Predict the 3D structure of the following.
Amino acid sequence: MIAAASKSTLQTSFPLVGASLAELTEWIQTQGQPAYRGKQLHQWLYERGARSLMDISVFPKAWRETMADYPLGRSTIHYRAESRDGTIKFLLKLVDGSIIETVGIPSEKRLTVCVSSQVGCPMNCDFCATGKGGFTRNLDRHEIVDQVLTVQEEFQQRVSNVVFMGMGEPLLNVDSVLAALQCMNQDIGIGMRMMTVSTVGIPGKIRKLAELQLQATLAVSIHASNQRVREQLIPSARQYPIETLIQECRDYVKITGRRVSFEYIILSGTNDLPEHARELASHLRGFQCHVNLIPYNPITEVDYNRPTDPQLAEFKHILEDRNIAVSIRRSRGLDADAACGQLRASRSAAEALTEV
Ligand code: SAH
């Protein structure tokens, strides 16, 4: 009786992608199969990219046939756009029909995946395309892990780095994000330090990550050097004074011994004046951090401008002069609308695209 009940619950509610070896071993036993098949299942899911139990040729044929429709938790590729620089943006269709974006970014030695943590985003930052389409729901563990498996499969190459810089605010979905990180590390084999969680900052959540001793890199989208400008750009900043945010980051460094990255989008004339650079430097003085300057990538709904190279260089120079580690992030994938902040999957955009 009990076995039958748990079997049916697991069947309807347990997508296999994202599960650990122990979970897979337990599950396969509830299906009347020997424990060692858990290891085979693990290998087929994570190394061989099985999309259905039917694919797993080492399993008994009769059993595979009865399980052919069991959902593994894989998405389908709805659309892909390839940029001249090799970056590929995917629109992935989830089981419930939701569309999310994932970007694969190849470079000489790496393959980086930019993953989404939510369908849409509730933060509504002024300069970001994702928020313009509203928010639908959080992603589950398997839906995050699936994005990495999909990129791995499409590029026929192992993923080396993961950044949570796609759609959504990861710290509004901490449990699934942490579970996905765990799986990507333990089951797919990506080093914790090769993964970055990027957040606009949610009160109290950075402290929580510190207490959990997050080993992935924490990136904080600061984008402004004072509360007034930050509130203009980021509506949620009203509930989170910049001083409190920075204090939480200082504590994070103290507790984890790991530095924090700050992302600073450069919007010409809005937050890139020399006084802004000086103000930012004074906030960040004396703690282990790194600033990434991101020239604004244009989106249609708003009227910001990209900075010129000399403007960017001056801002950088002012920070360097004050001993702040800083680099400029040149976005990849601009011509495929796959760069930072350009990710959207609005229904009209998705419907206009041909299915592949
Ligand atoms: N919600 C998270 C992760 C998603 S955004 C966060 O805010 O960090 C990933 C990065 O892209 C963030 O730093 C974000 O501010 C930046 N970004 C958003 N819109 C952009 C745009 N139009 N041009 C350049 N960067 C942008």
The pocket of S-adenosyl-L-homocysteine is lined by residues 127-128, 165, 169, 198-200, 221, 263, 265, 294, 296-297, 299, 340-341 (CB under 6 Å). The chain has two domains: 8-66, 96-351. The domain at 96-351 is CATH 3.20.20.70 (TIM Barrel). Residues 1-11, 346-356 have pLDDT under 50 and may be disordered.
